[in-house]
Amino acid sequence: MTIPVELVNGPGRKNKKEFTFSEEHAPEDFHDHLWELEAAGELVVQRVPEPYLEVPVKYGRTKKVPIGQTWHHKSCGQCGHIPGYSTSIFWVNRKLGIEYNDPTDQTSCTAWNYYASATSNQAAQACVAMRNFAAAYESDHFPIIHCGTSFGHYKEVRHEILTNAKLRAEVREILASMGKPLVMPEEMIHYSEWFHAMRHDIAKHQVLDFSKIAVTVHPACHYYKLVEGDAIYDPEVYGGQRTAIVTGLATALGAEVRDYSTWFDCCGFGFRHILVQRDFSRSFATQRKIKRMKEEADPDVTLTHDTGCVTTLDKSQFAAKAQDKDFATIPVLSEAQFAALAMGAHPFLVCQLHWHAADYKPLLEKMGIDHEKAWAEFEEQCGRLERNEAKYLTWEDVDSAPVEAAR
Amino acid sequence: MTGIGAAFKLEPKYPEVPYEEKARLFAEIKADARYDDYLYGCYECGICVAACPSARYYDFSPRRIAQAAAREDVELIFEQIQEDIWDCSQCFSCLRCPRGNNPGGIITIMREVAVNNGLDSAREALKGYTRIIYKIMSTGTQVSPDMLQADAFPDWGPTVAATSENLELWRRALPPDTHHTTKTGWQISTKTLVELYLIWHKTGALDLISELDEGLHSLLEEVMEDLLEEEGYEL
Ligand code: SF4
Ligand code: SF4
């Protein structure tokens, strides 16, 4: 479905110059450099495995998104504090019958720490990235990156590796000491790009009607502001004036996307602020984002596609509500959880909504999900673990849980 | 200096630090390979300020950062290292700059120099943060489920307490095999951790922690050397 640019027709819009897709102002295509270095034997380029889908990125270029054979580069904050995020990504892959690898041979990109404390350096950051890429290559799976900051940081590392021969040599030598080659993936893929590319397939598997669900979208800064040429911009979504990420999926699922004026603002995460100076994060998230969304768009849920954004927007609302009882909260989900719910995923066994802070129950009710019944099902499954009938819940347990009854 | 003259020539704010030392720090910033890519002069248009979240809540401005660097104002740059750089959210909204500057990126480099040289601003800004550095460098994941403690996140509401009370059980209830951990975000193989430790050693990232916090450095060094020795690596 086309989303016309008029949808984002704010008061000042008329005077704004529209961005046109053209090569004229386009930055250099990194691929040119990549192929040159490959031809010179400087590095190995890992090709996007077939079959893949092509999606439009800024400046009218396209990007190949692999469907399967993917190596899931997980996110610290997602796995640690919002585990329904990564679980939903995997669940949607499984539901679509797609083969993937969830590796233990993966470290964090360590960029959260780097942007928070600067206790690292360019070479260390590049080595961490390239070690992970080499591990993906060795497993014959293509990296797909869960965290927006990892994705943005890796795009920067790619630029540095391709343009800085000294850095390249240093990293190559360190990797060689571990028996690893210097490998650069042909494309840097964020998981949300996979969801965007697969949105019509996902919609085909939809079992809940989302036509009454209104959403706002927060695009993650590190996804589209860092190395801006490499992010999805689709002429069919906002006339290509904004990144199509998340919005494209939400509309494919039939939800109504509503605009708000501070869409370009960050969430307030701040990297170090969210950990040691949260008064800033809380104020920014609630005053500049949640409050504006509520006043201007009154959504049922706000969707985003990054670890830090889900964390900050979700967790900051409790204190705002405690301070002002009239503060109206908005549930916060990743679009992966939203898509999983649309496809019939269990809200607790799969989407793990009990790890979220802002009240999501009215949203589930509007989606037609009986959350009390669903919680009882979750507790029943946990009871099996407590009675030592099983050590862990498995995908089979989750698939066999009576999700139907929860609706 | 008093009176009208003061408006034209400001005294250095940190007179106790010699100019040569401030110039040395600026030279270190400029020597970073990324610096030339991050600064192309400045129009003083303020577009970066309009986009900047930190400028809304702090006495902070990415325009001032870009301008001080473009003018090579050594005194002001030192002042910014001591007072401003840790306010930045590292969101990179300032990449909207029509001149192609990256004020957030300049700040990343300034922070690195502050850490490398053990400056007061870095020590102050990272107080209370060292346990996170320990976590990321020693385990390979930045945050872990067991960090969710009600007393650490009182402002996040009752979900945090519920999570920490049920942590072990709720982690076992997660279907991905890699997610049953409580001390790391996901399960990381020993071989992977060894490779990460080698990276910290070989790139000097571990050494720079000693400038910041000697205790933390010793702790990390010990943990890393133990595992590396166990796995047959000699440093
Ligand atoms: S990166 Fe820093 S200076 Fe740039 S917009 Fe974000 S907070 Fe402001
Ligand atoms: S947007 Fe760029 S040119 Fe304008 S004030 Fe900021 S740094 Fe200077």
Which structural class should the secondary elements of chain B be placed in? mainly alpha
Helix content of chain B: 55-70%
Strand order of the largest sheet of chain A: 9-8-10-11
- CATH architectural category of the largest domain in chain A: 3-Layer(aba) Sandwich
CA(first)-CA(last) distance of chain A: 28 Å
Number of helices, counting only DSSP H or I runs of 4 residues or more of chain A: 19
Total count of domains of chain A: 3
Domain Cysteine-rich (chain A): 215-314
Keywords (chain A): Oxidoreductase
Protein name (chain A): Heterodisulfide reductase-related iron-sulfur binding cluster
Keywords (chain B): 4Fe-4S, Iron, Iron-sulfur, Metal-binding, Oxidoreductase
The gist of it:
The complex is a heterodimer of chains A (407) and B (235). With 407 residues, chain A is an alpha/beta fold.
From the structure above, extract its key features.
heterodimer, A: 407 residues, alpha/beta, Glutathione S-transferase Yfyf (Class Pi), Chain A, domain 2, Rossmann fold, 3 domains, four-stranded parallel β-sheet, three-stranded parallel β-sheet, 19 helices, 44% helix, globular, B: 235 residues, mainly alpha, Fumarate Reductase Iron-sulfur Protein, Chain B, domain 2, 2 domains, 15 helices, 57% helix, 0% strand, binds iron/sulfur cluster
Please give a structural write-up.
Chain A: InterPro entries: Cys_rich_dom, HdrB/HdrD_reductase. Chain A: This is Heterodisulfide reductase-related iron-sulfur binding cluster. The complex is a heterodimer of chains A (407) and B (235). With 407 residues, chain A is an alpha/beta fold. Chain A has 3 domains: 31-191, Glutathione S-transferase Yfyf (Class Pi), Chain A, domain 2 (Up-down Bundle); 206-374, Rossmann fold, CATH 3.40.50.11810; 375-406, no CATH class. Chain A is 44% helix and 10% strand. Chain A contains 19 helices and 11 strands. Chain A has a 4-stranded parallel sheet with strand order 9-8-10-11. Chain A has a 3-stranded parallel sheet with strand order 5-4-6. In chain A, strand 2 (52-56) and strand 3 (62-66) form a beta hairpin. The longest helix of chain A has 20 residues, at 278-297. In chain A, 57% of the residues are buried. The model of chain A has no long low-confidence stretch (mean pLDDT 93). Chain B has 235 residues and is mostly helical. Chain B has 2 domains: 19-117, Alpha-helical ferredoxin (Fumarate Reductase Iron-sulfur Protein, Chain B, domain 2, Orthogonal Bundle); 127-230, no CATH class. Chain B is 57% helix and 0% strand. Chain B has helices at 4-8, 19-30, 35-38, 47-51, 53-57, 62-71, 74-83, 103-116, 120-125, 130-139, 158-165, 167-172, 190-202, 205-212, 214-230. In chain B, helix 2 packs across helix 7 (74-83). The longest helix of chain B has 17 residues, at 214-230. Chain B is globular and about 60 Å long. Chains A and B meet through helix 2, helix 3, helix 4, helix 5 and helix 7 of A and helix 5, helix 8, helix 10, helix 11 and helix 12 of B.
